[in-house]
Amino acid sequence: MVHLVQSKEDLDQRVLEAGDKLIVIDFFANWCGPCKIISPKLEELAQQYADSAVVLKVNVDDNEDITIKYNVTSMPTFVFMKNGAVVDIFAGSNSDKLAKSMEKYVTNVCECQLECDQLTDEPGPSEGGSAQSISSIESGTAEAEDAAAADTTNDGAIEAIDQEGVLEN
């Protein structure tokens, strides 16, 4: 079953109630054609993985605060979470990618968390720590590369690019 999120409080409650199940959040808009196209596939996957996943839909026009929190800029955007932490995000109406991602995180989410914990040398949720997003881990792994990256401007000044890709003077 797919649940339409009504507010930030509603989303927070659903995430809390999900426990260790995979959470898939579909950011959509009523006027979005690709959102309408992928919606039946999402419904099908929600039923298929009803025992191991919670599927939530967030209307970006009705829930701007949630949309901003997850930095959603295009629809549909799918956010995959486990134990309250984001493990993956992708945008677009790609039903094959959606199905493969759900299968991957439903079956491998424990292995994924173990791998994430090993990469960061931080304790996982079961060890008293908190899970991190895959994107933050990937950016952490490439931190040295990002910190050393530089961009030469027209006047010859060098500006270092921080790990989030923002230019600093």
Provide a descriptive summary of the structure in words.
- The chain is of the alpha/beta class.
- It has a domain of 105 residues: Glutaredoxin.
- The chain contains 6 helices and 8 strands, in the order E-H-E-H-E-H-E-E-H-H-H-E-E-E.
- It has a 5-stranded mixed β-sheet, sandwiched between helices.
- Helix 2 crosses helix 4.
- It is globular, with a radius of gyration of 18 Å.
- It starts with a strand and ends with a strand.
Summarize the biggest pleated sheet.
Answer: 5 strands, mixed
Please tell me the overall pLDDT.
Answer: 76
Q: What would you give as the CATH superfamily of the domain at 2-106?
A: Glutaredoxin
Major sheet strand order: 1-3-2-4-5
CATH architecture of the domain at 2-106: 3-Layer(aba) Sandwich
Count of DSSP E strands? Answer: 8
Unreliable stretches: 109-169
Helix/sheet category: alpha/beta
The total of helices stands at 6
Helical percentage: 40-55%
Radius of gyration: 18 Å
Report strand %.
Answer: 15-25%
Spell the H/E element sequence: EHEHEHEEHHHEEE
CATH class of the domain at 2-106: Alpha Beta
Please tell me what the overall shape is. globular
In whole angstroms, how far apart are the ends? 50 Å
Using the coordinates shown, work out and report the CATH topology of the domain at 2-106: Glutaredoxin
Protein topology:
Blueprint: E1 2-4, H1 8-18, E2 22-28, H2 33-48, E3 53-59, H3 64-69, E4 77-82, E5 85-91, H4 95-120, H5 134-141, H6 143-148, E6 150-152, E7 158-161, E8 167-168
Parallel strand pairs: 1-3, 2-3
Antiparallel strand pairs: 2-4, 4-5, 6-7, 7-8
Helix pairs in contact: 2-4
